[in-house]
Specification:
Layout: H1 2-26, H2 31-115, E1 118-122, E2 125-129, H3 131-145, H4 149-162, H5 169-182, H6 186-199, H7 206-219, H8 223-236, H9 241-249
Antiparallel strand pairs: 1-2
Helix pairs in contact: 1-2, 3-4, 4-5, 5-6, 6-7, 7-8, 7-9, 8-9
Length: 254
């Protein structure tokens, strides 16, 4: 309605003013009518001024409203941008956290695998050992393979003492007996081979252990005991390579 007044109200008021002026001129010599016309003109002019003032006030108020709305829109846009920035940062942080978690899980799995028992197949037997246990056995055997029998004897002796329940025990005792024999610790070697046979008489290296015992007994100048050991070997493990070696040696023993 106020916009309509803007387009037509001012023109209409001016037309009325002109119309009123013509009326005042026509009744110039009629005082009462002239006074009434002047009063009417003044009222119309005051109404016009009030209308224009109201329009100006409304325009100023409208401008204030528009400015406030624009400020609100700007604030909302700033908050939205801030929210988007925070969301993007949160997404990056989450991605970084997930990456660190995967890395930590991978590292944990690797560390756990170092402590998980390993399945070992050795000398015809299969058993489980701890990784540290395997490491120590392999280290002792590496010394033996290098031909440092004195150091191997010490290393293997420590191993059997440290791991009394290990699945490596029969094999460790066998090689310990050989290391002791190599350094001419015949009594120690004899005890270690016998301990190995008592622990695991069906072990894959049991025939070799008996043959080694006969060698130790020969070194100890006990030919009778050596002959008895070779006969026991042939009887207990007739199909073994060690038994064939025993058959070859028996005639040479007096």
């Amino acid at each position: 309605m106020r916009l309509e007044f803007k387009r037509h109200g001012v023109a209409g008021v001016l037309a009325l003013l002109l119309l009123g002026t013509g009326t005042a001129q026509a009744a110039l010599f009629e005082d009462d009518e002239a006074r009434r016309a002047i009063l009417d003109l003044r009222q119309r002019l005051e109404a016009t001024n009030n209308a224009l003032k109201a329009q100006a006030d409304d325009s100023a108020q409208l401008r204030r409203i528009l400015v406030e709305l624009q400020a609100q829109i700007d604030n909302m846009q700033a908050e939205l941008n801030k929210s988007r920035g925070a969301q993007e940062q949160l997404t990056r942080d989450l991605s970084d956290m997930q990456l660190r978690q995967r890395d930590a899980q991978t590292g944990l799995d690797e560390r756990l695998r170092k402590f998980e028992p390993a399945t070992i197949s050795l000398d015809g037997r299969e058993f489980q050992v701890d990784p540290v246990e395997k490491r120590d056995y392999d280290a002792a055997m590496e010394i033996f393979r290098k031909g440092d029998f004195a150091a191997a004897q010490v290393s293997l002796q420590r191993f059997v003492q440290r791991y009394p329940q290990t699945g490596y025990m029969p094999s460790a005792l066998f090689w310990l007996g050989n290391a002791s024999y190599a350094v001419k610790d015949y009594k120690g070697s004899l005890a270690q081979f016998r301990q190995m046979l008592n622990l695991s008489p069906s072990h894959g290296r049991a025939p070799e252990a008996l043959l080694a015992i006969s060698n130790v007994q020969i070194e100890l100048k006990d030919s009778k005991a050596a002959r008895k050991t070779l006969e026991d070997l042939i009887k207990a493990y007739p199909q073994s390579d060690a038994a064939q070696a025993a058959r070859d040696r028996l005639p040479k023993l007096r």
